[in-house]
Design brief:
The chain has 102 residues and is of the alpha+beta class. It has two helices and four strands; from the N terminus they run ββααββ.
Length: 102
């Protein structure tokens, strides 16, 4: 995922921006529908972060590095983005425990 994501440049409140995006994946690692924004920083620059994250999610598919035998754990993921990095990935299927990194 990191290879596809280009954080927005020239954002004044760089360190404060965060977004949580939920993705639903098919067994072959393709997005099933449009990712859903769960939370985002209240900032004029927040939409730029969300847009760059959504673009990367679409461009980086299919996510073939995810183990097929653990599909139930990664079919629905909450991805936490910040201006600097992808902070973590939580599986919505296992009570929010950290899932596979993308």
């Amino acid at each position: 995922m990191k290879k596809c994501w280009i954080p927005p440049a020239g954002v004044p409140d760089v360190k404060k921006l965060k977004a949580v995006i939920r993705v639903s994946l098919s067994p072959d690692g393709q997005l099933m529908g449009k990712p859903a924004l769960l939370a985002a920083s209240a900032s004029l620059s927040g939409p730029a972060l969300v847009e760059s994250a959504m673009r990367a999610l679409a461009e980086c598919q299919p996510y073939t590095v995810l183990p097929a035998q653990k599909y139930k754990e990664w079919k629905l993921l909450d991805l936490n983005f910040s201006q600097d990095d992808i902070l973590d990935v939580s599986s919505s299927q296992n009570g929010g425990k950290t899932g596979p990194k993308g």
